[in-house]
């Protein structure tokens, strides 16, 4: 909503519900779907009988919140701080959030100038441990920077550790990033990331389900993760212990049919144990941005083929390589012995041996042939890479 528009009943009703019901409340989502926003709000403010699915005690608590709610004031405060409210069906609403069904947000509060719908179409979540290692922070920042350079939007939760590294990695390349908060978007959390979150709001987007001034709780962090999963094309987990909240995001992504990826760590690291568990299931192992884009991107966005360094022997013809490999390491061999080892004729072996001699790989000693020092190093290096 812009400052020149008058809020309608649907908008005001959804703003009220954002303060009355908790994010991800499936029962409230069902009410909205079955009765509509206006009727749900009317019943909350006037009705004595509870709507289906809640006890009288819980209904009384919701009604008490509804009576105190001031949606008009919430909108005014939001506008003063450069925050707008999006409703499902708005032009800027990301349609993929509808995949959440009855747990879909009743609306989203947004700070920043970009279009959330457009950005979400080409976005990837990068999440992981708060108490990450230097390796985790490096991988998150490198992945995010690489994704941003390729035109992808990096989405994360604004927390310490992997989240913060991912946001900084994207910002550092002049790229786009979105922070999804578990509190009001006008109240940066954690406090130590106030400067970072304000910078994200200037260069990217800060979004959340909770109205201005609302504070985070442990349960709000958990349900916030479903929005990160639904909003993006895929989720990459960088370092996560067995009980990490980032695994909630990954499993939500799996349920929603999104791509789920993990960055491996040391087998002995408890901070990578959760990632490795994901990889043992259906997640895909990734090590850089190109591999992520190959999975979530459009047809033809393929990661480069991975291979070791090119050795001089790799440039030889296959037949010459077989003859070279058939020569013993520390003694001479006759041409017929080399031919048998290379599974070719003696004439072909002799022709290949002369070719290899001209290239400095073998030398002739009477009727025998022997590897040169250069060739022994090359063959040894090739075998060690097998």
Element layout with pairings:
Layout: H1 9-20, H2 26-35, H3 37-46, H4 56-68, H5 71-80, E1 83-86, E2 108-111, H6 116-120, E3 123-128, H7 134-149, E4 153-156, H8 162-172, E5 177-181, H9 194-203, E6 205-208, H10 218-231, E7 234-238, H11 245-255, E8 259-263, H12 273-280, E9 284-285, H13 289-296, H14 318-326, E10 333-334, H15 335-342, H16 346-358, E11 362-365, E12 368-371, H17 373-384
Parallel strand pairs: 3-4, 3-7, 4-5, 5-6, 7-8, 8-9
Antiparallel strand pairs: 1-2, 2-6, 10-12, 11-12
Helix pairs in contact: 1-4, 1-5, 2-3, 3-4, 7-8, 7-13, 10-11, 14-15, 14-16, 15-16
Please give a structural write-up.
With 386 residues, the chain is α/β, with parallel strands linked by helices. It has 17 helices and 12 strands. It has a 9-stranded mixed sheet with strand order 1-2-6-5-4-3-7-8-9, with helices on both faces. A 3-stranded antiparallel sheet has the order 10-12-11. Helix 7 (134-149) links the parallel strand 3 (123-128) and strand 4 (153-156). Helix 3 crosses helix 4. The longest helix is centred in the middle third of the chain and has 16 residues, at 134-149. It is elongated and about 105 Å long. The model has no long low-confidence stretch (mean pLDDT 89).
Task: Pick out its properties.
386 residues, alpha/beta, three-stranded antiparallel β-sheet, 17 helices
